[in-house]
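haha ok so turns out i had the wrong file open the whole time. this is the CORRECT one, sorry everyone. sequence first:
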Amino acid sequence: MTYIPDSELILNPDGSIYHLNLRPEHLAKTIITVGDPDRVAKVSRLFDEVEFKMQKREFVTHTGTLNGKRLSVISTGIGTDNIDIVFNELDALVNIDFKTRTIKPEHTSLDIIRIGTSGCLQADVPVNSLLISSYGIGLDGLLNYYPLENTKEEADLLEAFTSHLDESHIPTPYLAPGSTSLADRVGAGMMRGITLTCPGFYAPQGRVLRLKPTTTDFIKKLNTFQHQHYRLTNFEMETAGIYGLSKALGHQALSCNAILANRITHEFSQKPKEIVEELIETVLERLTTYRRL
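then structure:
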């Protein structure tokens, strides 16, 4: 068994993992991630019981039960740089023995569901709709640092996207799938599509304020991409990193999106709080009461 040194697996004096400040017993096997730290309490207030709370930096964790099912909800903050921290530490909490600093012989797979907001890239994806991501395509570069294997179908889709975008100055795109089992369980009745993950909110998503983006006609390029029956439906800043690390680490992940903006019709939701609340309630209900027929 390979010993993991102090500089690589950093633990706090109380035995908790460095950034999240959690010990293994604090974590449920089903985890909801949200970007906004304030959204953690909006999820956990619907629990029957909250047994544990922790906050360190932007990372807020509440663990409790709903309908007899133990759940953890964790804020990641914005962006895949934070996803790298959160998902590696979540995996360490269940798959590394902190006392011996060695990888456990039996792998534990987590179910991880993102509840987040997103902008859509197609005129026929309405504002205030709920959408789950079948795939995430990342322009942030995170998974280029990790081993990530694609099926032939995924590789063909990624190659078609890269050729269509044709921008040499951005990081090499990567692609990862969401969990089909979680999609069937949580996503019934929701729209499905491909989500693009960007490394920023303004120029990386084609917004123009004072600085003009170096990528020209970015939104048009994204809107017009099509490969077989695939097209890009929406974009945000975490999904591809979540999917890529989950696949590489052996976890099941699903990204659920509340569509607040349409970048083609230039609409923005008039009821963003309500649509996020609807997504939270829908996900919790399906995680804790759903039974396959």
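The first helix runs from residue 37 to 44.
again sry for the mixup
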